[in-house]
Amino acid sequence: MPKSLSELVDGQSLLLVGCGKMGSALLQGWLGAGLSPEQFFVQEPDPDAALQDLGVHLNADMDALEAAAPSIIILAIKPQLAVETLPSLAVLASEAVLVVSLMAGVPINIMSDLLGGEASFVRTMPNTPAAIGEGMTALYASDGAQDIQKQAAEALLAAVGQTVWLDNEKMIDAVTAISGSGPAYVFHMVEALAAAAVHLGLSQDMAAQLAVQTVTGSAAMLREAEADPRRLRVNVTSPGGTTEAALDVLMGDTGGLVDLMRRATQSAAARAGELAKIGEEDDVTIEMGVELDD
User: Fold this and answer.
1) Within 13 Å, how many C-alpha atoms sit on residue 254's CB side?
2) 12 vs 235: CA distance, rounded Å
3) What residues contact 135, with CB distance under 8 A and at least 6 apart?
4) Exposed, middle or buried: residue 181 (CB in 10 Å: 0-12, 13-18, 19+)?
5) What's the whole-model pTM score?
6) Domains of the chain, earliest start first
7) Are 148 and 175 spatial neighbours (Cβ–Cβ below 8 Å)?
8) What angle do CA 99, 101, 105 make, to 5 degrees?
9) CA distances, 85 to each of 17, 31, 146 (Å)
10) For the chain, which end, N or C, has fewer CB atoms within 10 Å of the first or last residue's CB respectively?
């Protein structure tokens, strides 16, 4: 039986660098999974009242951090802060330490250089539904990461949703295009469906209610055991009926929604690759990928 998160990090200290929206969601998930606030050292320059009341070690100085010797460092900062922040943590990043990164567009080799090259790494791509415990996170581990470290990283992200492992770091660009950016596609579809309802004469409030509940109800059906989206679609499409009339447009002769989604995600994946590129020579620059931590 797989070990629980509490078992995997029992007696260990964890350092969370950045506690904005995503960092806060993770921290709440970890505490909800049974970890003690006393285990956490949190670095956040602008802590809100809720964070201050949690009982974690907030903005401890480097002497206290060295004494605590955190076994896991979680980087939940904006990617453009990596060059400024990571070198200051190098003294903590020994070969026994696992660094779990949520930063988009910052490859492991760059993090390793900035931290001194001794720690093990797990790079992750979560998405915004993690804020309500419904996230989807892909993980990729560096070659030196131990099995127990990978188990701990997976358990940490599983506290806020589902997880999958990648065997190629470059696949993070594809994940970014699908699940990382994917919530925005769904939100836009709800916007479009509500706008269409208004165009048909319904009120704005009713249009929004119909669109939102239709999508959330459909998502609930997809979560049923052995749910197949194609079969579900066929089941609600009567020959010659209203749904078929609409799908004739959405699945048009030129590829319809499938082709549009393919082109959209290819564009997102290409952009993710561009954002991960590093500046020339010693001028290291890191740009934003998916915005996860405002």
Assistant:
1) 3
2) 51
3) 25, 126, 127, 128, 129, 157, 160, 161, 162
4) buried
5) 0.88
6) 5-174 (3.40.50.720), 182-274 (1.10.3730.10)
7) no
8) 135
9) 9, 25, 25
10) N
